[in-house]
From TrEMBL:
Belongs to the YccS/YhfK family. It is a multi-pass membrane protein. The keyword Metal-binding does not apply. It comes from the Bacteria. Residues 70-345 form the Integral membrane protein YccS N-terminal domain. It is found in: Cell membrane. Its main location: membrane. Residues 413-533 form the Integral membrane bound transporter domain. This is FUSC family protein. InterPro entries: Memb_transporter_dom, YccS_N. Keywords: Cell membrane, Membrane, Transmembrane, Transmembrane helix. The chain crosses the membrane at residues 20-45, 66-84, 90-109, 138-158, 399-416, 444-463, 469-485, 490-508, 520-541. It comes from Dyadobacter subterraneus. The keyword Transmembrane helix applies.
Amino acid sequence: MNYLDEFKKFISSHYLSTGIRLTLGAVIPCLIFHHYGILNNLIAFPLGTLLIGTTDNPGPVHRRRNSLMIAIVTCFVVACVTGFSRHIHFVSFIEIILFGMFFSLVGVYGNRANSIGLISLLVFVFNIDDHISPEMVLHNALVFSAGGIWYLILFLVLQKIRPYKLIQQLLGENFVELGKLLSVKAGYYFAKPDYDELFNQMIHQQVILRENHETLREILFKTRQIVSESTNTSRILMLMFLDSVDLMERILNSQQNYSNLHRAFDDTKILRLFGTYISWLAAELLQIGLAVQGGFPSKPKHDLDEAFNKCQLAFDKIRERRMTHDNVEDFIMLRQILNSIQDITERIKKLHRATAYDVDLSKDYKPNLETDDFITKQEYSPRILLDNLSFKSSHFRHAFRVTLALIIGFLGSLFFDVGHGYWILLTIVTIMKPAFSITQQRNIYRIGGTVLGAFIGFMTLYLVKDDTVIFIIMMLAMIGAYSFLKINYFVASTGITLYVLLWFNFLNPQHITAVLQDRVIDTVIGSIIAYFVSSYVLPVWEHTQIKQYMKEALDANRKYFDNVSTIFTGVALNIGELKLHRKEAIIAMANLSDNFQRMLSEPKKQQVKMEEHHQFVATSHMLTSYIASLSTYAQTVGQSYLSEEFKPMIRQIDRQFETAIKVIEGEQNIGTEVIKESLPQNQKLIELLTIRKKEIKEMGIEKSAQSPARKALSDLKTINGLFELISTITIDEIKILNKISVEV
């Protein structure tokens, strides 16, 4: 990891922008209120700014605006209802059940609704405590709402001033992550690669890119201004995003049999040369990403034309020295890698130009996609909520666990002297997530971050006596807390604890020691409750859900394959439909991988059939990559190699997909006949291969290089090889699925 580059990425990221926006939005009013001596009466104002502001997830402007308005109204109602009834414990228990279930269950409507539900629960927790006098309940609710309205105004003003900034930040981050993906790919070309580790890194990067692409699609395709307006900036941003998606496909579809590559060429330097050059391309993508984030033109770090020519020259020399009629297929594979590298090089050179918002690039750009098809549609029908009112629903189980944990925490705060008892409930609400692995991780980070933050806070107050310095440290802690809230919960938890303690020190310095102790004790109690409830009350283990993700991956890959393969039989190419199926396949693969990664964090006894599931995830990744490779040939030379010979191959692979899906659906140990079937041979390919070997043997490498059969053989051999690989992978998946019990 290059820490300097990571720092540059963070400095220009939307995470830091969010942290600064929330911090200044909360602190500036505090300074004004303090100047006029009214801060103590309006302390709910910055709290409203911070909490309402955390519901502001990246997305289209109208959705962000609407979610902020809904959050303000909802939190006002919750604050009033809770505040006026908190002294009646019986009513408080009813509110815990109703609010705990409802606000945890609204997550069925997506991340934005889930954020509003979480903040509403936090407002409920803040107001259930006795620290607010009855006559101040309505006053505090209004002041809190005013703080939320202030953030809404701040958001709208900043959006008007810099309408493209968020898109640039997300798009730049996308290119940085693409560079990391390409850097992982380079690892396959160096000596003695660790295939398992490289595969895991590939999966991790694809999950990150999938989430980033979904957010960018929602912003770019759902915002009328971006889709329809003709400004150069908007057109270039759309162009760069679409190019980034194509580039990701190109990186994925460069999958090869790396074991065979190393066997054939490890005694030469060519693989290492390719790996080094691919690493350079990854560095170029990083430069592009940082430039897009920062809003300045990128400058190439290397002379790509000269470097690629060295790769081309090295290939020509080794082919001249070593290629024979016996190893021609190895060199066809090496040629395909070189072609992929060349294509990626040209795309990166184009992206370098795009960072300068070159008018020549955008003037001929015309979006030809039905953009609505590429956006994940979120329904808000009450029926969805009602359908989840069952213990079969993972969302309902999560809501039940949260509610039970809140009841236990509330009882503990009533019967035991735990100081700021609402911090117990606060910890439970922020830690507990639907997935056990995430809850466990946040539990550890919460305790560790709280202890570390308390220690830093204690040392700061002990060593620093200057209020200005303490204030600056508090500001930095706030910025760090809200910048890292969604990327590193340990750092965020440390920052939150630190700034809360320093804030309390300004408000009530006489009781800071008690506050520090309460913070640590209450957090530990809340974490313990969250851990035991998540572990033993209706837990949802990942192995119980993975079958659905596996089926979705197979379905998506089958549709993608059918769409791509029929182009070789004469069906007209529909580029919009092809890209839609590609998107669905990549999303399904990333969801499956994400599920498997979460399973790795669960208790060992819940890691059922891990080896088989890992094999299935790996084969699904390769399957999507091979179909993507086939897609590239379908789009470029598909019409040149139309043949009836592909139809029986396509039919057989379709039968294999169908068999695999039937196994997932419960028909065990089937597909014996399908597994034994061999893919029909391509007679045209056999003829071309025979001709080519004869030419090399009789004419030599140099003279035979001009033969028309060379290019045709290279393309047809690769296309046919991809059909064979897809068939082999689907057969492997049938075998793997037969090993996995249907109870999974």
